[in-house]
Design brief:
The chain is of the alpha/beta class. Helices cover 42% and strands 14% of the residues. It contains 14 helices and 12 strands. Helix 11 links the parallel strand 11 (270-273) and strand 12 (289-291). Helix 1 packs across helix 14 (328-340). It is elongated, with a radius of gyration of 20 Å.
């Protein structure tokens, strides 16, 4: 059984896709896997009851050490953990949560971090056994919808102009929740848009936090040059990413952003907030551009607009980086090998 406590790489507008890949890896090894959301359960006892039902589940895999892992405290079956990002970057700062995560990790057969940095952070803040934490970057595979209409996509997002081909569309791909900070760039971007109406920012992602989503919708509604697109399936999202000028990430915390890696794979330049999770995959001026403030975002965007050689360089290197380090085959082999230890 696979418990999802966090939408891995929830830049995916089809928010179940990345998590479903783990299920497919497990099933490809000959196992039967049931994917459940941690939000369906109130207590560890609820999960223990489910796992022990007849026929009983033989093992469990939790995605997010606190949200999902914390629910496995009472089960007798062996389990493994996949760090989500916010568990190690944010939840570990709260003493009560950290104690729970230490207990979960102590009982786990293995844990997986997407980057060496995330592994180091886990070892620093948690009383963990170093030899049970493995590093496996996310595997990336992109597929573009063949019948996608860019003009219709922009129109449905609220962008009405006859200069579609001249627009510079910056696409901010993220689930609508506070840790993704989609409003971080809004004010400064709007001012920049007023200087050049061809620069527009489109935010696209699933409405994960309803209260925060309402705040985002209200701000976007009154802000010039910033738009909110409706959720799309993965292939349509990839098609939109491929047509945009650049993909943006403004998160406060990331484990590993699938949207960034997908943009690189699609040959689209990336502008990412300079945080550890992003800096682990975006090498400034080599595979993308990093920014530490909204003002710096505009500066780096202007460079991308005016320096065609820089744009070509980051696109070329980004594609090569994903091909070299984010193989879907390697990810599948790793998870199948680790799941075998749960027997």
């Amino acid at each position: 059984m696979c418990f999802r406590g966090e939408h891995i790489g929830d830049g995916h507008v089809n928010k179940y896709t990345s998590n479903d890949e783990f299920r497919l890896h497990v099933e490809a090894a000959g196992h039967t896997c049931e994917l459940r959301d941690a939000g369906e359960f109130q207590t560890p006892a609820d999960v223990a009851s489910l796992v022990s039902q007849n026929p009983a589940f033989e093992a469990a895999l939790a995605i997010h050490l606190y949200k999902a892992g914390g629910l496995l405290m009472d089960i007798q079956a062996p389990y493994g953990i996949i760090f989500g990002g916010t568990d190690i970057n944010e939840d570990v700062k709260a003493e009560q949560k950290r104690v729970v995560m230490e207990q979960v990790l102590l009982k786990a057969r293995f844990a997986v971090a997407f980057t060496e940095k995330l592994k180091e952070e886990a070892e620093l803040f948690l009383a963990s056994q170093c030899n049970k934490i493995y590093v496996q970057p996310q595997g990336i595979e992109t597929k573009v919808a063949e019948k996608f209409c860019w003009t219709e996509f922009l129109k449905s997002s609220g962008i009405t102009t006859k200069q579609v081909d001249e627009l510079h569309v910056f696409l901010l791909v993220c689930g609508l929740r506070r840790v993704k900070d989609p409003l971080y760039l809004v004010e400064v971007f709007s001012n920049w848009h007023c200087e050049n109406l061809l620069n527009v920012l489109v935010i696209i992602g699933p409405k994960i936090d309803p209260v925060f989503t309402a705040d985002v919708e209200a701000v976007v509604k009154r802000t010039a040059g910033v738009f909110l697109a409706q959720e799309r399936c993965q292939r349509e999202l990839h098609a939109a990413m491929k047509r945009c000028f650049a993909v943006v990430n403004s998160s406060v915390s990331e484990g590993m952003s699938a949207a960034i890696l997908e943009a690189m794979d699609l040959g689209v330049p990336v502008l990412a907030r300079d945080i550890p999770g992003n800096a682990a995959v975006v090498q400034h001026e080599t595979t993308g551009l990093l920014f530490s403030s909204p003002q710096e975002f505009v500066h780096q965007s202007q460079r991308l607009l005016s320096d065609h050689k820089l744009r070509e360089k980051v696109v070329r290197n980004g594609k090569l980086y994903v091909e070299a380090h984010h193989s879907m085959e390697q990810e599948r082999e790793t998870y199948q090998r680790l799941v075998d230890t749960l027997r």
